[in-house]
Design brief:
mainly alpha; 11 helices; elongated
């Protein structure tokens, strides 16, 4: 009988101890326990800590109701790694306000939405319901919202040709998203603007080919870049039209009084007229230049005004090749060469023949001088001989 009493006493002690450690045999009556060496080695906890409502309490931090001593209730030391803790926590859908297994404490300061004791440097945003995960999700929403707003603003600025301005207010994530969206929108808007500018330029050019006064369509007036491009296209056509008009008049030597104060029209016509006059001058200068090959001496042409005559004379005097042909022909005549005009000088045969004859005449004159000199010398010698002979006879 004494042995039976002893066994019963041992069983009662064992049951009492089980009741004292209410959390699966691992928490004491105060709701806490010392972290086991095994759990410390895994980085799951350190020292004595509370789990199931033991220790100091906080009225505002209760996670949930329920019996923490149930057989399904897990403790932090039940997991082999902190990743397992997080996987279990997330799978159960636990949060700071829903934690029936009290892995995150029980209404005390530990109740922060982070189960067990997190290892240093661990990315807590992976933990369901953690402040970091909530902040990260908010940042994603802010970034998305900012990107949409930035895209819209950038698209508008790009289409209008405005300077870039991606400044905004809000969270860092919102500002970053806004900047990214703005750049994308601006690039697309700028590309659309270039297409419209090309269209506006062509339309302005077409109008400038038809009339002198510009009328900018209403759809382009509100956007400066399109308005300016339309005007540029119009001015280009106007410039081309009046430059061609002036060139035609310049070649015809007819100066028209435009009676127009539009600087583009006046300057373009003047530029074209001067170019036409230059082309006209070339015509008369060339005539004078070519005439020099057929004229030994300059003869004034029968032209209708002094301006043309001056251009003609300028061309005649500019022909320096004639002088070299004259020199070659003169030397040929002087040296008694053939009087046939070489093929390369046939276009200047008049000049060649004239100077060849001059060379021949020079040669004859030289021969006469030589003959006279010889005759004078012979006569002098004979006279001297006669004088000597006469003296000897005496």
């Amino acid at each position: 009988m004494r042995k039976v009493s002893t066994v019963l006493a041992i069983l009662l002690v064992f049951l009492f101890q089980q009741n004292a450690y209410a959390h699966s045999g691992r928490t004491d009556a105060n709701g806490g326990h010392n972290c086991s060496a095994k759990s410390q080695a895994k980085g799951l906890c350190t020292g004595y800590h509370y789990h199931n409502g033991g220790g100091s309490t906080s009225s505002g931090g209760s996670s949930s109701s329920g019996n923490s001593n149930s057989s399904w209730d897990k403790d932090c030391s039940d997991f082999s790694s902190y990743d397992e803790v997080v996987e279990y926590w997330n799978k159960k859908g636990y949060t700071a306000t829903y934690d029936p297994e009290k892995l995150d404490g029980w209404g005390n300061v530990v109740d922060d939405g982070i189960p067990c004791e997190v290892p240093s440097g661990y990315d807590t945003s992976k933990i369901n319901g953690s402040p970091e995960q909530i902040a990260k999700a908010q940042a994603v929403r802010d970034s998305s919202k900012g990107e949409k707003a930035g895209y819209s603003a950038g698209l508008s600025d790009g289409e209008k040709g405005n300077s870039k301005d991606s400044s905004t207010t809000g969270s860092d994530a919102y500002q970053d998203g806004f900047g990214k969206g703005y750049e994308t929108g601006y690039q697309k808007g700028a590309a659309e603007l270039e297409k419209l500018k090309f269209k506006a330029s062509n339309e302005g050019y077409s109008l400038g080919k038809k009339q002198d006064e510009v009328t900018i369509p209403k759809s382009y007036i509100s956007i400066k870049a399109l308005k300016d491009t339309y005007q540029q296209g119009f001015n280009k056509a106007l410039t081309e039209r009046y430059t061609a008009f002036g060139y035609k008049d310049g070649k015809s030597d007819v100066l028209n009084d435009l009676k127009n104060d539009n600087a583009i029209i006046v300057d373009s016509y003047k530029k074209g007229y001067e170019k036409g006059q230059a082309e006209l001058k070339k015509t008369y200068v060339k005539q004078g230049y070519e005439a020099a090959f057929r004229m030994v001496k300059y003869k004034q042409p029968k032209l209708k005004n002094d301006k043309y005559i001056g251009w003609y004379r300028e061309g005649f005097n500019s022909n320096k090749i004639v002088k070299s042909i004259a020199k070659v022909a003169f030397n040929a005549g002087l040296n008694g060469e053939s009087n046939k005009v070489p093929e390369k000088y046939t276009h200047a045969d008049v000049i060649y023949k004239y100077n060849y004859v001059k060379g021949e005449q020079e040669k004859k004159e030289n021969n006469r001088q030589i003959a006279g000199t010889l005759a004078f010398g012979v006569a002098g010698w004979l006279g001297r001989r006669f004088y000597v002979a006469k003296k000897m006879l005496k």
